[in-house]
Specification:
The complex is a heterodimer of chains A (about 475) and B (about 200). Chain A is α/β, with parallel strands linked by helices. Chain A is built from 16 helices and 18 strands. In chain A, helix 2 packs across helix 5 and helix 13 runs parallel beside helix 16. In chain B, the strands form 2 sheets. A 4-stranded antiparallel beta sheet of chain B has the order 1-6-7-8, covered by helices on one side. A 4-stranded parallel beta sheet of chain B has the order 2-3-4-5. Chain B has about 200 residues and is an alpha/beta fold. The chains are: A alpha/beta (about 475), B alpha/beta (about 200).
Chain lengths: ~475, ~200
């Protein structure tokens, strides 16, 4: 029978199907961080059971960590306590732990691919909804709750019904100044924040084939923002090239065996999807959000839609614009901004910092803007230094911080103050997401860079040499 | 973690007719720092419920004594966003055992089922009827009958059936969780692991 890429990976991991119930799905790789794991470790302790396969779980600290002075003790006692719990739990169960200060430390969805933990055809879970990132490699990867973290620790399985399948094609070539982030925000704006709920998405077409691995990670990362369980892209030569030679990547005969298998991981020509959508790349321009969910996005040159032009209830729409202090019909271009955040598992990789640097080079940070530049990992930080990007950053009046999730969810001190407007390369513009009362505009690193040097929402194409 | 069994719940309901209620509203990230499952109910809808100085926002429904009950009824796409189970814990710990909506985000729905909060998905029309009935009489009662998979607006007798798979239904009726099940098939799991493609 013809199968989709998703079917192939899912079906090969089903231990058993429960009648009138979910599938028991075997998990190849389990990533844990300090926030969603302690109660799970406590759970197995209370049940007096151990971790079944400690070598399939990888721990890193990221959500709570400070992004300055990481060599000093963490000041917030609650954060320090969670970080210590992760370290102790990992140690007690023989799980590898890349804590604060470790050379491999970074955001869980950045370090997984960097060290070859992320591989094609694998099932990957983490107590974090942006686990969908790893789908860029042709893996089935999605976020789980803490009860499920406990299940994976105890049994290496979770119990979930198989989702429906959707394919999203984007055909043609991208316009000047349009990045993978814009492609994703465009798709989400078309589907709304719940349009893919119940589905697992496969991204296909020229745009994704031509995209770098880091770009694919950005797109897959944002799958959850339209409600999808996850998103994936068939592995190709680019994928294999990226994976090759990394710490956890197979070598020798095991590599040959893996390659033979990975090359079968594509959707069969006559396989069917429950839903299929096709978009034209030429319709996409640099995007920006104007509301309080990632589906409320538009081309940067457009004006904020009227309530009657969008799906959903008018009251909710007006509440959202009220929170943002925006009005229907206004332009986004020219709005003064206060903060810029470059980072997160969505856009905290080296290509994102290259894009940022390409705009700020030879320009100065706008005086009134506070900018937080946070690499996704120490590896990204090292590349920023090696490639001379740090020099550009400093010459333009910016500073580079240390790795972590940072202002994406503002669990540490990187909080945007109430009422302030931030252009962020992260993934959520929910009310208060970046700090109580903060207002977030989601955008690409190019749009964020243009805002950082002009102090207002600016079309980055005006600052780029075509 | 085991939870109380769920069979038939008859209760008034707290209305929250807002769409796309995300998990950052249900419980903001800064309240996720505990290492035990304790006290999350206090921070349910924290930033909608309290001002910056921790005084209650009087216009928010949880601060309005008119409304109470073990059922929360929310707008479409309830629970979107993060995978934090803390959101479901906050709902449960506050005292809700059931959330009704015309549409749920996937991960939140799964988390609820895993911890003993019953997510009941109804049609948009039926959700509107419930909201209208509560608006008319905040003490109106709703019956959520899990064995019959039926939700009834007692004042009018109008009802609608809801979906839940047989396995999860059995778990909710008995207060079982998935680990109980998985522990029992551990041999199948370890045998399966030997046989993976890679």
């Amino acid at each position: 029978m013809s199968k989709t890429l998703f079917d192939k990976v899912w079906d090969s991991h089903v231990v058993k199907h429960v009648e009138d119930g979910p599938d028991v799905l075997f998990i190849d790789r389990h990533m844990v961080h300090e926030v969603t794991s302690p109660v799970a470790f406590l759970g197995i302790k209370n049940r007096d059971i151990g971790v079944l396969y400690p070598n399939k779980t990888f721990a890193t600290a990221d959500h709570n960590t400070p992004t300055i002075n990481q060599h000093l003790p963490v000041e917030d006692p609650l954060s320090a306590n969670q970080l210590m719990a992760l370290e102790e739990n990992a140690k007690a169960h023989g799980i590898s732990h890349w804590g604060l200060g470790h050379e491999k430390n970074g955001i869980v969805h950045v370090v997984g691919p960097e060290y070859g933990i992320t591989q094609p055809g694998a099932t990957i879970v983490c107590g974090d909804s942006h686990t969908s990132t790893h789908g860029a490699f042709g893996a089935i990867a999605f976020g789980i709750g803490t009860s499920e973290v406990e299940m994976v620790l105890a049994t290496q399985c979770i119990m979930q019904p198989k989702p429906k399948k959707m394919r999203i094609n984007v055909k043609g070539s991208l316009n000047f100044g349009v990045t993978p982030k814009d492609v994703a925000l465009y798709i989400i704006s078309k589907l709304t924040t719940s349009g893919a709920t119940g589905y697992f998405v496969e991204y296909a077409g020229d745009v994704f084939e031509n995209m770098t691995m880091e770009g694919r990670m950005t797109v897959c990362n944002l799958s959850i923002e339209m409600g999808a369980r996850g998103g994936m892209i068939a592995p190709d030569e680019k994928t294999f090239e990226y994976v090759k030679g990394r710490e956890h990547t197979p070598t020798g005969a095991a590599w040959d065996k893996a390659m033979a298998y990975w090359k079968t991981l594509k959707t069969d020509a006559d396989a069917t999807f429950d839903k299929e959508l096709t978009f034209d790349a030429s319709d996409i321009e640099p995007m920006i959000t104007y509301g309080t969910n990632p589906g409320m996005g538009m081309g940067i040159s457009k004006s904020i839609p009227n309530a009657n032009q969008v799906e959903g209830g008018e009251a909710t729409y007006k509440k959202s614009l009220g929170y943002m202090d925006f009005n229907e019909g206004e332009d986004m271009i020219g709005k003064p901004i206060d903060f810029v955040f470059i980072g997160s598992c969505t856009n905290g990789r080296i290509e994102d910092f290259r894009a940022f640097a390409s705009i700020i080079k030879g320009r100065k940070k706008a005086d009134h803007v506070t900018a937080w530049l946070v690499p996704g990992s120490h590896k990204v930080e090292a590349a920023i230094k090696e490639e001379g990007i740090l020099d550009i950053i400093q010459e333009s009046g910016f500073e580079l911080r240390e790795p972590g999730c940072s202002a994406c969810l503002a669990m540490n001190d990187d909080k945007v103050p109430a009422g302030k407007l931030a252009v962020s390369t992260s993934n959520r513009n929910f009310e208060g997401r970046q700090g109580p009362g903060s207002r977030t505009l989601l955008a690409s690193p190019l749009v964020a860079a243009a805002a950082a040097v002009t102090g207002k929402v600016t079309d980055p194409r005006e600052l780029m040499n075509s | 973690m085991a939870y109380d069994k769920f069979e038939i719940l008859t209760s008034t309901a707290v209305p929250l007719p807002i769409e796309n209620v995300d998990t950052d509203q249900i419980i903001p990230a800064r309240f996720l720092k505990a290492t035990e499952r304790k006290g999350f109910g206090d921070n349910l809808f924290r930033d909608w419920r309290y001002n910056g100085d921790d005084t209650p926002k009087t216009d928010f429904v949880l601060n309005d004594a008119t409304y109470s009950g073990k059922i929360l009824i929310g707008g479409k796409n309830f629970g979107s966003g993060s995978s934090r189970e803390h959101a479901a814990w906050a709902v449960y710990d506050y005292g809700f055992r059931c959330v009704i909506s015309s549409f749920f985000a996937d991960i939140f729905k799964g988390n609820c089922l895993n911890i003993g909060v019953l997510p009941v998905q109804v049609s948009a029309e039926f959700a509107s009827k419930i909201f209208a009935a509560i608006e008319k009489d905040p003490k109106t009662e709703i019956e959520v009958n899990l064995p019959k998979q039926k939700v009834t607006l007692l004042v009018t007798g109008e009802s609608e059936s809801f979906d839940i798979n047989g396995y999860k239904k059995e778990n909710m009726l008995n207060g079982f969780d998935d680990i109980d099940y998985l522990q029992n098939i551990k041999k199948d799991i370890t045998a399966f692991a030997e046989d993976l493609p890679l």
